[in-house]
Design goal:
By secondary structure, the chain is α/β, with parallel strands linked by helices. It folds into two domains: 234 residues, Type I PLP-dependent aspartate aminotransferase-like (Major domain) (Aspartate Aminotransferase, domain 2, 3-Layer(aba) Sandwich); 117 residues, Aspartate Aminotransferase, domain 1. 41% of the residues are buried.
């Protein structure tokens, strides 16, 4: 591309993008004509929500497990239109997926225009029953935008079968494509009027063999499309790492996270907050009681910083729920081992002991 940018971007970009789009379409169970690239799932959510023609009094529905950046998109769109964001409260811990559907449906009103639902929640690492949620919302005349940031590569996907109005996802997470590789899928009847964050040539420059939806999103001005063009190779390469291909890899990671959560809960005397069936390749657990009730100390909590600085462990800490309870989230990918989670338990115990000794000395 750098040696001859015109040759690369103007003569060969379309065919190269089509090649990777075809691989991705097969991987996530969609028709390629309904699929466009975006930099990440947040960009996909922006494109959908900011393309809506909201009116005063309309409602945008989400849950208290939603990703903060995407919920901010709803808040800003509602502010401009005089609309309202409604947040369904899903209990956590919870015994099973049934309560999630009930909580969402109870928040639906005649003014609900769109529901933003996570496939896999970021803070709590829950797999939500999006198939049932989509069908029930559709029966009530509510479109669903699925934030599938963590789903591709963690779960087997057939988006056509789910049939939401919109689905957006990331490919830099479990597919391990470069950062900047995401996608937006829109059902054919929802594509008119859907605009990317950056309006560019595609609005009045149709290309033979492409849909107007693809024309608008495929070209956002001169930029480096490397991340998108690597998606097909990333899917092929990751699919060869474990016997059984992608199904084998997803099963391996799920089994590893289940074992890891069990070991950590036993070692740290924690209660698992959800059943194993709601886990993919991540799990969120409460921090031990000695970590609770402490004020926020900055962008990252002091204990999370210490985990990395002293033990080279990167594990997100978070506060969730009305009571501000503190949690930590673990992930499992093919390069992780069971021993690493034992090391995490030891490190948390060391951090806990250090904190207790500090307060006793004080």
């Amino acid at each position: 591309m750098e040696a001859e940018p015109v040759q690369f971007l103007w003569r060969h970009y379309d065919e190269r993008l089509q090649s990777t789009r075809s691989v991705l379409a097969h991987f996530i169970g969609v028709d390629a004509k309904d699929l466009v690239p975006v930099t990440n799932a947040t960009a996909g959510v922006n494109a959908v929500v900011r393309s809506l023609r909201l009116r005063s009094g309309d409602e945008l529905l989400t849950t208290d497990h939603a990703y903060n950046a995407c919920q901010n998109v709803l808040v800003e769109a509602a502010r401009h239109a005089g609309a309202k964001v409604v947040v369904a409260r899903i209990p956590f811990p919870l015994r099973g997926p049934e309560g999630t559907l009930d909580a969402i449906l109870q928040a639906v009103t005649p003014w609900t225009r769109l529901a933003l639902i996570d496939h896999v929640t970021s803070p709590t690492a829950l797999i939500l029953p999006v198939g049932s949620i989509i069908r029930q919302l559709d029966e009530r005349g509510v479109d669903t935008l699925v934030d599938g940031a963590h789903a591709p590569g963690m779960l087997p996907l057939n988006i056509n079968a789910l049939n939401p109005a919109y689905y957006t996802g990331n490919l830099h997470k479990w597919v391990c494509a470069p950062k900047g590789a995401g996608f937006l899928w829109a059902r054919e009847d929802k594509q008119d009027g859907l605009q990317p964050a950056v309006v560019s040539h595609g609005n009045n420059t149709p290309r033979p063999g492409f849909t107007p939806f693809q024309d608008r999103f495929d070209w956002a001005g001169t930029f480096d499309p490397t991340a998108w063009l690597c998606v097909g190779e990333a899917i092929h390469w990751m699919g060869k790492l474990v016997r059984g291909g992608w199904p084998g890899l997803e099963k391996h990671n799920h089994q590893l996270i289940v074992r890891a959560r069990t070991r950590l809960c036993q070692r740290l005397r924690l209660a698992p907050p959800c059943p194993e069936e709601m886990l993919g390749s991540m799990a969120t657990m409460p921090l031990p009681e000695e970590f609770q009730g402490r004020p926020k100390s900055g962008k990252l909590d002091a204990e999370q910083l210490r985990l990395y600085d002293e033990f080279r462990i990167e594990v997100p800490f978070l506060r969730f729920g009305l009571d501000g309870r503190r949690w930590f989230r673990i992930s499992a990918q093919v390069y992780n081992s069971a021993e690493e989670y034992d090391y995490l338990a030891e490190a948390l115990e060391q951090v806990q002991m250090h904190r207790n000794a500090y307060f006793k000395a004080g």
